[in-house]
Amino acid sequence: MKFVILDVYPDKKHRLVKDTAGGYGTGNDFGNSFFSKILNKYVDQSIGMPAIEVMIISSILKKDNEVHYTRDLHDKKILDCDYIIFPSSIIAHETELNTLSKFENKKIFVTGIFANTMKEKYLKKNTVVVKNESDIFFYNLNKEGKLNVKFLDNLFLNKDLIDNFYSPVNLDDLPYPDWLSYSKKYRLRNDFFSLKEKVAIPILATRGCPYSCFFYCTYPLQQGRKVRARSVKNIIEEIKYWKKALGANKFVFRDPVFSINRKHTIEFCNEVISQKLNITFMVETHLNNLDDEMIPLLKKAGLKLAYVGVESSSHFVLKDMKRFTVEHDKQFQVIKKCEDSGIKVKTMFIIGNPEDTKDTIIASIEYAKYLPSLYSQFSVFTPYPGTPAYNEFKDIITETKLENFNQYNLTFNHKNLSKEDVSNLKSLAYYKYYFNLKKILQILKYSLKSKLYNI
Question: Taking Cα atoms as reference points, which of 323, 310, 128 lies closest to residue 211?
Answer without folding.
Answer: 323
